[in-house]
Structure formats: structure tokens, C-alpha cells
Specification:
225 residues, alpha/beta, 6-stranded parallel sheet, two-stranded antiparallel sheet, 44% helix, globular
Length: 225
């Protein structure tokens, strides 16, 4: 009987791709939807889900919570499409090589676990040229779940994971690491976002990579070889 494959889940922004336009888009969305200008910095880059951001921003503005996320998402995706046409995201150094190597393995299933919305994640990986590595797309997203732990848990299940199977989460924020630990996966930090190697290690990452440029080291960390 063949062993079950290792499930490897990646965060997206700051882990696989670099896209500097999310923060100004968030500013515009919050100004448009809840009347809070220049507030994106309070919510951006914290590893939160889009559903959480929409709810908390609406609550802070004293507006009714009913329909908050629907208004938020309806405003966000069109602005993202406009931004992608001008400034497409780029894969972070070494990402394409790592994904290609993992995709070629029969003992690995890859997925995405991100706080961003599914539609937006699809747009980003398509524009960054890495969508083919996630075809079909497995994972879970921040429009489907309020809490990042639930995003990670459902992403693992969507990849066919079950208890006793090897599960690895790769992310660039402390919340990625903490969520991985709560789900029971092996957290691998990558210091390509807003957190240092020391911060990711302190959050509980089993191993921390500076980036993905060293292919043998990266594969060794992900596959424990």
C-alpha cells in the first residue's frame, strides 16, 4: 500500500507572491464601504481574513453588520482587477522552482490557504504566472471562513488530508504559524513578508527559511529530508 501523500499548504501574499497594491486598495475599499479613509494600515499585513476585516471595520464604523462582507467584496474585486492590469504581482524569488519541483512529485499534494478571497487569489496566481502549479486549485480562503485557523483546517481537508497524514503549512506571518500549530500541521516560516526569521521562530515555526532561493534547502525543510 502506497503511503498517503504529504499535504503542503501555502499562504499567498508575502509567501508566494509580492503585490504592493493591496494596502491602497484596502484604503479605498474601507473609505467606500464604511466611510473610514486611510484606515487600511490598521488591518493590512496582520494575517487576518478578508471576512474578519470587513466585519471589524464595519463594526468600528458603527454600521450594521448584515451584508458587510458582501459590500466589501463587491468593492474590492473590481479595484483589484484594475490594479492587476497595471501592476501584476510577481512570484517571490525561488517560488517557481519550488512549486515546479513539488508539482512533479507523486507524494505531494499542494494547496493554498490564504486570508484573501478565492476570486482574488485566483486572479493573483494567474497574473503571477503560477496558476498551473495549482491546477486543480485546492485550498480554502478568507471569504469562506472568518478565522484563519478554520481557513487552514478546511484547506487541509480540501486537499484530502486526514489524521495521521503529514501536513505542512508555509507562511510569512505569526498568524500563519499559530494557525498551523492549532490545526496540527508542521509550520514552516519564510521571512519574505513583514516578519523576521526570529519572530517566526518565536511564534513556533519548526523551521524558518529566509526565502525560497535555495531549492535543496527549501525542499528539505518542506519534506523533512
Amino acid at each position: 500500500m502506497r503511503p498517503r501523500p504529504t499535504v503542503i499548504l501555502f499562504d499567498l501574499d508575502g509567501t508566494l507572491v509580492k503585490f504592493d497594491v493591496d494596502a491602497p486598495i484596502l484604503d479605498r475599499v474601507l473609505a467606500q464601504v464604511v466611510g473610514l479613509p486611510d484606515q487600511g494600515r490598521l488591518y493590512d499585513g496582520l494575517g487576518r481574513t478578508e471576512r474578519w476585516i470587513a466585519t471589524e471595520a464595519t463594526r468600528s464604523a458603527g454600521l450594521p453588520l448584515e451584508g458587510a462582507f458582501e459590500r466589501y467584496s463587491a468593492a474590492y474585486t473590481p479595484l483589484l482587477r484594475e490594479a492587476l492590469a497595471r501592476v501584476p504581482p510577481v512570484p517571490l524569488p525561488g517560488v517557481a522552482g519550488v512549486l515546479q519541483a513539488l508539482r512533479a512529485r507523486e507524494d505531494v499534494v499542494m494547496g493554498i490557504a490564504t486570508g484573501g478571497m478565492r476570486a482574488n487569489a485566483v486572479l493573483k496566481i494567474e497574473h503571477a504566472g503560477i496558476a498551473s502549479f495549482f491546477d486543480p486549485l485546492h485550498g480554502a480562503f478568507g471569504d469562506e471562513h472568518h478565522d484563519r485557523v478554520e481557513v487552514f483546517r478546511h484547506a487541509a481537508l480540501d486537499c484530502g488530508w486526514s489524521d495521521g497524514q503529514r501536513l505542512v503549512f508555509v507562511g510569512d506571518t505569526e498568524r500563519d504559524i499559530l494557525a498551523a500549530l492549532k490545526v496540527g500541521g508542521r509550520p514552516v516560516g519564510v521571512a519574505t513578508g513583514g516578519f523576521t526569521e526570529a519572530q517566526l521562530r518565536a511564534a513556533g515555526a519548526t523551521v524558518v527559511l529566509p526565502d525560497f532561493t535555495d531549492l535543496p534547502r527549501t525542499l528539505g525543510a518542506l519534506l523533512e529530508t
